[in-house]
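Supplementary Methods. Inverse-folding protocol.

Structures were first reduced to a C-alpha cell string of length 181. This string, shown here, constituted the complete conditioning input.
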C-alpha cells in the first residue's frame, strides 16, 4: 500500500474539489472515478487501495476510513493501525459532513497521469448529485463484488473492462496486477 500516494490523492481532491462537493460521498466517488480512469487509460492503478462494493456503490476502503476518522468515527481503527489512520486524517478537517484540507498534497507523489485523472474525476463528479453518482457506479463490476458472499472487494480488471479498456490495456493490466501479487 502506497500511503504517501493515498494521502496525496485525498489532499489533492480536498484542495481542488468545489466547496459544495466535499462530502464523503463525492470525495470517495471522485477517488473511484480517478482510479477507474487511470486503469482504463494507463493500465495501472492510480493508487493502491481496495475498491469495495458497498450498498451505495464502489468505495476506496482506506480513503473512506480516513474520512470517517477525520470526522471523529472511531470504528475504523479496528481495521487499520491507529497511527496510520491518525497520520492520514490529521491534515483533514470535518465540519457538518464537509471536509477540507489543512495542507497541500505532496505533488512529488502524483504523476502527470495521476493529476490528469484526478482533474477529470473532479470535473465529472462535482457536477453530479447523489442519485446520479449511485446510478453511474452500480455497474457489473460493482454487482459482481457486491453479490459475492465472501469478499466485496472489486476486481480492477473488471472495473477497467466495464469502463471500456481495450484488449491491450486489459492484457497489460492483468500482467501488472499479477506481478504485484
Amino acid at each position: 500500500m502506497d500511503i504517501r500516494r493515498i494521502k496525496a490523492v485525498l489532499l489533492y481532491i480536498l484542495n481542488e474539489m468545489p466547496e459544495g462537493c466535499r462530502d464523503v460521498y463525492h470525495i470517495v466517488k471522485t477517488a473511484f472515478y480517478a482510479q477507474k480512469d487511470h486503469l482504463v487509460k494507463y493500465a495501472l492503478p492510480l493508487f493502491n487501495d481496495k475498491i469495495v462494493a458497498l450498498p451505495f456503490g464502489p468505495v476506496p476502503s482506506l480513503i473512506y476510513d480516513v474520512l470517517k476518522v477525520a470526522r471523529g468515527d472511531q470504528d475504523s481503527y479496528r481495521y487499520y493501525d491507529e497511527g496510520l489512520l491518525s497520520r492520514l486524517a490529521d491534515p483533514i478537517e470535518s465540519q457538518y459532513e464537509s471536509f477540507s484540507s489543512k495542507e497541500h498534497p505532496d505533488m512529488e507523489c502524483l504523476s502527470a497521469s495521476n493529476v490528469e485523472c484526478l482533474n477529470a474525476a473532479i470535473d465529472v463528479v462535482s457536477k453530479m448529485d447523489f442519485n446520479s453518482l449511485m446510478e453511474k457506479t452500480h455497474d457489473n463490476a460493482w454487482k459482481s463484488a457486491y453479490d459475492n458472499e465472501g469478499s466485496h472487494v472489486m476486481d480492477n480488471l473488471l472495473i477497467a473492462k466495464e469502463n471500456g479498456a481495450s484488449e491491450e490495456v486489459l492484457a497489460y493490466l492483468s500482467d501488472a496486477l499479477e506481478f504485484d501479487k
